[in-house]
Amino acid sequence: MRSTGRARAAGDAADGPRPSRAAELFVLLCSVGAALAAVAQPLALGATLDLLLAGGAPARWLLLSAALLLGELLLDSLTALSTGRCTAGWTAAVRLRALAGLLGCVPDRARDLTPGDVGTRLTLNAADAGAGPAARAALAASLVTPVGALVALALVDVWVALCVLAGLPALGLVLRAFARDTGASVAAYQRVQSEVATRLLETMDGAATIAAAGTAARERARVLAPLPELAALGRRMWALHGRALGRSGVLVPLLVLAATGVGGLRLASGALSVGGLLAAARYTQLAAGVGGAASLLGALVRGRQARARTLALERLPALVHGTRELPPDGPGALELRGVRVVRDGREVLRADALRIPGGATVAVVGRGGAGKSVLVAVAGRLTDPDEGEVLLDGVPLGALSREALRAEVAFAFERPVLGEGTVAEAVAAGPRSLSPGQVRAALTAAGADGFVRRLPHGDGTPLAAAPLSGGEHQRLGLARAFAHAGRLLIMDDATSSLDTATEHEVDRALRGSPRPGTRLVVAHRPSVAGRADLVVWLEDGRVRAVGTHRELWRVPGYRAVFGGDGTPGTRGGAGADGHGSGGTPAFGAGNTGAPTLGSENTRAPVLDAENTGTPVLDAGNTGAPTLGSENTRAPVLDAENTGTPVLDAGNTGTPVHDTENTRTPVHDTENTGTPVSRSAAEGARP
Ligand SMILES: Nc1ncnc2c1ncn2[C@@H]1O[C@H](COP(=O)(O)OP(=O)(O)OP(=O)(O)O)[C@@H](O)[C@H]1O
């Protein structure tokens, strides 16, 4: 990749809030304080007892014991409070960073993540991960009690302390086994949870299909299918907990018994006082309380596994932008040089020396999976090519600042995400700040003004209160793209839900706009390709040919893309003229040789080029030839300079001549032997 921009490498985390460690430290201090107060109490109580037995005045020791008890209670309360704050802060931070990673990533790199999986990572996993730091602090503090108790025990009686010390490794082993086994189960549990969520969301997405097919019972079974595994994993985790508690439940009393026995012997020998024995028994219990760390350890392990899942979102590769600006008033000329895009080890796009003249409307055409979306994503830098570079007005896209890129390149999609707020706010959201008049103009250009006017509060209607059809939703997305478009507007299937008449109106409005710019339109309908100045025809990820629709239409393979030669094609099947029937009956379609009557709204007759040899006229309202239509100032075909591969005669090795410039006939040797035009000059075949 030659562009100066680069994707954020795996391992670099997304930017986002990072809570200070202060909250975690506060939890640690409070927990340690409470533990120390607990550790000091037996000493004070033992001393009080000894003083009482000796007939002394234990008032000071009693006060100290009470103060220690109160202190422990107070610190425990503070620990609980600060744990809540710490967990909430970390959960929010983990969630926001994961969200920033997700929203900032190269869009097609998040393709494998299902909504259910993302939802689980951002909710359950983020909450578990957020609980991790407080659990870590509490776990560290929980070690203070047994260690402190052991030290205090050594002060009271070293033999009792040695007895407890000998038993502690067994407790340590129990905890280690618990942490190891529970880690694997927790990871599997979180994975299955996300699988259930994914299936549930898929079902909600396909609710209409399920209702229509009457497959609700089957769907329910499918959603719940992972439940037995989830239940088994849950049971396993409880079993591991139970086993750890059971083992420590046996070990701890045994240890206390042994230590009390040693203490009793020391009392009998006069080496230990009664108060000392009381303190020793209590300290033995506290030291053996290391088993109580099991639940904290469980929370820590769960937090670690969950954090790994949220980090995967944080570290999704993101686009890194440069600092360059575009030359002012550039026409929006695009060039793809040596571009290669590889996905899952497979080359999904190769485009070299593909030049798109500034100001032209260019249709990107090809069968499903041919690479149209990948091409326009690369052209507007939604993703970077693995090799090669894309230049806009001579500047590599990767070198552009984010602001310059997004101000000059606008996208409209098949299913736009409009967000919340009102209709006007949805259209206004973007890199430019728009006046209400500009918003209204964009709505008009997108053919959305009519239905928006009929909404209860016009464009001030909240989207949530505006039930929109697929086409209306799409038109708002178009309006937003139009409103913010700079020198390049990319429409990826963005008019698929529009009827052909509206689509034509939108096209006309765009062409009449004062800032026409370059338009790259993924087209499934021949009517759209027919209105474009130039068509880039993709096949299996390669540029098969570039030319006008009229020229390309003579190649059977091109017609087949639209189902135009009897082959099942994609949406919006073509009339025999290749401009799309648009629901209007086409006469003379097929091989009759009879003229085809104008498709979609047309008054002008369209002649069947295939059978008559007569040039195909614009199926729009003008009767003018399609080539270089309407408002484009830019030359449609850059015959001199492009070097762009144009009309492949079917990989036959047959020379292709530039008929635009030479008037030499070009033969489509692939299937028909029918003369075919070629529009732009280049020496090499694609
Ligand atoms: N992120 C990705 N991971 C794996 N494969 C991908 C990815 N993006 C695209 N592809 C593959 O690249 C090929 C081209 O995809 P693309 O979406 O560009 O096709 P298309 O021509 O737009 O198809 P359609 O008309 O059906 O939308 C397809 O085979 C697709 O599966």
From TrEMBL:
Residues 334-565 form the ABC transporter domain. Gene3D superfamilies: ABC transporter type 1, transmembrane domain (1.20.1560.10), P-loop containing nucleotide triphosphate hydrolases (3.40.50.300). GO terms for molecular function: ATP binding. Pfam families: ABC_membrane, ABC_tran. Residues 564-686 are annotated as: Disordered. Residues 25-302 form the ABC transmembrane type-1 domain. Keywords: ATP-binding, Membrane, Nucleotide-binding, Transmembrane, Transmembrane helix. SUPFAM superfamilies: ABC transporter transmembrane region (SSF90123), P-loop containing nucleoside triphosphate hydrolases (SSF52540). Residues 657-670 have a biased composition (Basic and acidic residues). It is found in: Cell membrane. InterPro entries: AAA+_ATPase, ABC1_TM_dom, ABC1_TM_sf, ABC_transporter-like_ATP-bd, P-loop_NTPase, Type_1_exporter. It is a multi-pass membrane protein. SMART domains: AAA. The keyword 4Fe-4S does not apply. Residues 564-585 have a biased composition (Gly residues). The chain crosses the membrane at residues 25-45, 159-179, 244-263, 283-301. This is ABC transporter ATP-binding protein. It comes from Streptomyces daghestanicus.
